[in-house]
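Notes from hallway chat w/ T.B., transcribed later so I don't forget. T.B. wanted the structure written out for a chain they're using in a teaching module, and asked if we could keep both sequence and structure tokens in one place. Agreed to drop them here.
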Amino acid sequence: MLEKHGDIKFAINLLIYILYIIIIPIILYDMFLIVQAIINPNKIPDFFGYKSFSIVSGSMEPTININDIVIIKNAEINDISINDIITFKNQNETITHRVIDIRVEDGRLIYTTKGDSNEVTDIEKVRFEQIEGKYITKIPRIGKLFSILKNKFVFSLILILLIICYIIQKKTLQRKELRKEKRKKYEREKGLQ
């Protein structure tokens, strides 16, 4: 019975540590982005030149799927070539598509883009100023989790739960130490008699 109780405690502690390892970096990342968004509300926040976006359409399948997270890096004008995948702003949308043509029009570079699974190219041409960055990699299927964590209520709730878990864990360790000290004191007193 004691062994089973110990296994349960070990599993709970392991789960708490795993949550710390996963959730705390995400919370720090979110806090960093929130501060950036407050400082510069007209710009999409980045993390040292890197940005992440959750994919909500199937236009880039099978290369990038719905609910994948794409990681992009800020790019210079010379960094973008035909066949690169870029993320760009088009009115109020952020779109991740492949560059299929680059031309100079009126002295400016104009990019023609297309989703891999789309039959036709995008109607709107992209100017360099609209480009948020160049695709680096993707994290498959965790877009829903990131969307949930970007909700301020959920973010606050998880932060509160982590603080509560930390406090409970700290109190448990303090009680353990107190019992050890009492046991040592009892053993010393018993040894003296």
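Follow-up for T.B.: DSSP finds three helices and seven strands in the chain. Might be a good example for the class.
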